[in-house]
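Recap for those who missed Tuesday's class. We walked through two folding examples back to back. For each one, the amino acid string is listed first and its predicted structure tokens come directly after. Nothing is annotated here on purpose, so try labeling regions yourself before you check the end of the notes.
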Amino acid sequence: EKSNHSILLALFSKLLPYTLAFMVIALFADYYMYGVLQYPCEGGLWPTVILTLFMVLSAQALGLLFFAAIPVLRMALSLCSLWGVVSFSICGFSFPQPAMEAPVRALSWLFPLRHYYLIYVSQTLDGNSPLYSFTNYAALLVFMLLPLLLLVRLKRALIHTDYIP
């Protein structure tokens, strides 16, 4: 009601404080790693900040997509938690992604963290141009736009679904 029944305004006003909080935390981590600990940052500060923003927004959008697809809060949160835990393994942090079986390698494209990781290695560590990571930036942008497909379903779920504790 406070958003005049505009789902976009409601989502923007709900997610903006979290986006800002996550960005402050991520930027502090970037400052600590590259400023205090002097990790190599070949790509520059602003591409790293933009990459951080893309990661935060794509992760929030994926969570929103899960809730729009499964409008039961417990199930959506469980799926988000599972997706987050599996993403570290399937994206190549704990086991090299090129050494995985072909179907698992293909599934890794469904995780925003994989694209973030590839851009991070390419730009921040190697100093490559952002054009080199165009497909990964496009994938993160697709993750950000996916919830738009289910906005009507999400609005209906938010208005008509009763929360049962």
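Example two. Treat it independently of the first, because the proteins are unrelated.
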Amino acid sequence: MYMGGTKRARLDELRTEANYHRQRLDLYRAKLYGGRPLNAARLEDFQRASDEAAARLAAALSDPRSG
């Protein structure tokens, strides 16, 4: 199945964005488990950014126009 270069580039961008936000969240959580004091609002911001990026990727992957 051929996927246009623009669509492929967009999916790659969304994957990279989702990975980035997930990794930032994981690093912040690691600080929590390491006993460092954390800002709850910041943790929520990281969680929200990660969830939103994952949702954008999922929506793009399920888009019937993608293939």
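Answers for example two:
The chain has a mean pLDDT of 90.
The CA atoms of residues 2 and 67 lie 7 Å apart.
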